[in-house]
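Figure 2 data, in text form.
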Amino acid sequence: MKTLYKATVTTSGGREGHVKSDDGILDFRVSMPKGLGGKGEKQTNPEQLFAAGYSACYGSALQIVAKKHKVDLGDFNVTATVKLGKTEEDDLQLSVVLDSYLPGVDVETGEKLVNEAHEICPYSRATRDNIDVTLNLLLDEE
């Protein structure tokens, strides 16, 4: 692989610790959500950070495939919902739901774009066959 960009982040203290990128842009505490046994502090957590990265990356993939097909996405957005749960074997496991809001796009075109974006998005490629990823297409109501 030819590296185009490299991000380096160090976390001290795990889920109840501190995150800092080598360039200093990220520099904050993380805490465990109450649902995982944490105190419920007003800090971010790994699942929120993953959801932010995945939704941004997938949104860019949508822009790439829309441009390829000469489709105007308008004021689109992508919402990633990341869930952390347990498998039947009691192992921790992630799942993701990607809700793509594509106003002004018809169902057939929207489904094509959503599926093609999922094929090229680096986050989708990295998680393929590892976690459940659900793709939802949200359109304007006529």
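Caption note: Residues 1-44 form a domain with the N-terminal domain of TfIIb fold (CATH 2.20.25.10).
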